[in-house]
Amino acid sequence: MKVFGWRRRLTPFDRKLTAILAICVFISFLLPLRQGIGARVLVERDGKVIYTADLDHDQQVELQGPLGVTVLQIEDHAARVISSPCPQKICIGLGKAKHSGDLLACVPNRLVIRIEGDEEKERGYDLLSR
Amino acid sequence: MTSSAVDPVALEQTRQRVFMALFIALAVALHTFEALLPNPLPWFRIGLANIMALTALFIYGVQALWIVNMARILVGSLLLGNLFSPAFLLSFSGGLLATLLMGLSFRLFRPKIGPVGVSLCGAVGHIGGQMLIAWLLIVRHPSIWMMLPFFLLFALISGMLNGLVADYLLEALSGHPAFGRLRTMFAKQG
Q1: How far is residue A50's CA from residue B37's CA, in Å, rounded to a whole number?
Q2: What pLDDT shows up at residue A57?
Q3: Among the CATH numbers 2.40.30.20, 1.10.1040.10, 1.10.1760.20, 3.20.20.380, which is that of B8-180?
Q4: 3-state DSSP call for residue B125?
Q5: Side-chain-facing half-sphere of B47: CA atoms under 13 Å
Q6: Which residues in chain A are closer than 8 Å to B54, comparing Cβ atoms?
Q7: pLDDT per position as a tens digit, B73-95
Q8: What is the CATH architecture of A40-123?
C-alpha cells in the first residue's frame, strides 16, 4: 500500500468536488465578512440585548446567565471573557474580540458577546431586533 | 450444527449483522477518542467516526450508513454524558445533515463518486447542520457567518483525510473473504 498513491484514490468526480469546495473556501475568505475596528460591545442573552458599553472605557462587567456569573473585561479597545462558570471555558479560550463583527459566545451560559462598529449605527437596529 | 450445513443467505445476513455491530462499536470508540483529544478551537471536529460510516456505506449501502451514524451519535453522546445538551444538539443536527448529504450523493453519483467525494459531502453537511442549529437556537446574529470560511476550510481538509482513510480501509477489507462483493467492486473500478 503506497501512501504516496493517495491522489489515485480520488475518482475524477471526487477531484471535481474537491476543486469546487476549494473554490468555495477561497471565495468565502474573500467575502467582506470581517470588518473594521469595533466601537461598542453588546451582550445578548437568548437573542435579547442585555448590556452595551463603549470599548473606550476600560472596565469589568459581571453578566448573569443561567449557570452563573460570566465576567467580561474591556481593556485596550478589546473585550474578553476572564471568568465563566461553564464547564469547558471555551469562551475564555476565544481570547480578545475587538473588530466589528467579532463574537465571543458562551453557549452553556447562553451569552453572546459581540462587537459592533460605528457603521452599524447608521444602519439602525433592524439587525439586532430580529 | 456445523457451518457447512448453514444456508448461505442466512450466513451472509449474520455476517452483515456482526460487521455492522463492529462498525458501530468502532465508530463509538472513535467518537469518544476524538472527544478526548485536546481541542484548541471549539466546534472544529475531524469526524473520525465518519470513517466507519463511510466504510459501512460502501460495503452495505445507504441504510447501513444511517444505522452506523445514528447509533454512533446516540451511544457516543450517552458515553460522554452530553445526551440532549446543546452540544449534543449541534452534533446531532450536523450528523443528520451530513448523513443525508452522504446518502444522497452516494445514491445519485455512485459509479462516479468515491469515498473521498462522499466524505467531503458529509463534512460540508455537518457544518451546514451545525451552523443552522447554532443560528436558530443560540446566536441569532449574522456574525456567525464570519466563521464560515474557517469551517469550510476545515471541512475540506478533514473530509479529504477521512475519505482517504476510508478508502485505504475498504481496500484492505476487500482482501478479506468475508467481503467478497467488495473485491468485485474494486476490480470494476481499477
Answers
A1: 35
A2: 82
A3: 1.10.1760.20
A4: helix
A5: 34
A6: none
A7: 999 999 988 888 887 888 899 99
A8: Sandwich (2.60)
Compute the distance between CA of residue B60 and CA of residue A11 in angstroms, rounded to an integer.
20
Rounded CA-CA distance A94/A62 in Å is: 18
Nearest to A18 among B141, B146, B160 (CB): B160
Q: Which residues pair with A48 in a beta bridge?
A: A45
d(CA B104, CA A113): 38
- Size of chain A, expressed as the number of residues it contains: 130
Please spell the DSSP secondary structure of A28-95, one letter per residue: HHHSTTS-SB--EEEEEETTEEEEEEETTS-EEEEEE-SSSEEEEEEETTEEEEEE--SSS-HHHHT-
Do B75 and B49 meet the contact criterion of CB atoms below 8 Å apart?
no
- Burial of residue A33 (number of CB atoms within 10 Å: 0-12, 13-18, 19+): middle
State pTM to two decimals.
0.69
Is B118 buried (19+), middle (13-18) or exposed (0-12) by CB count in 10 A?
A: buried
- Domain ranges in chain B are 8-180
Residues of chain A contacting B37 with CB distance shorter than 8 Å: none
Residue spans per domain, chain A: 40-123
Separation in Å, CA of B33 to nearest CA in chain A: 17
- Give the A window 42-101 contacts with B, CB below 8 Å: 44, 47, 88, 90, 93-94, 101
Question: Looking at the partner chain, which of B42, B86, B117 has a beta carbon nearest the beta carbon of A13?
Answer: B117
Nearest CA in chain A to B189: A11
Beta carbons of A28 and B40 less than 8 Å apart: no
Q: In chain B, which stretches have pLDDT less than 50? A: 190
CA distance A90 to chain B (A): 7
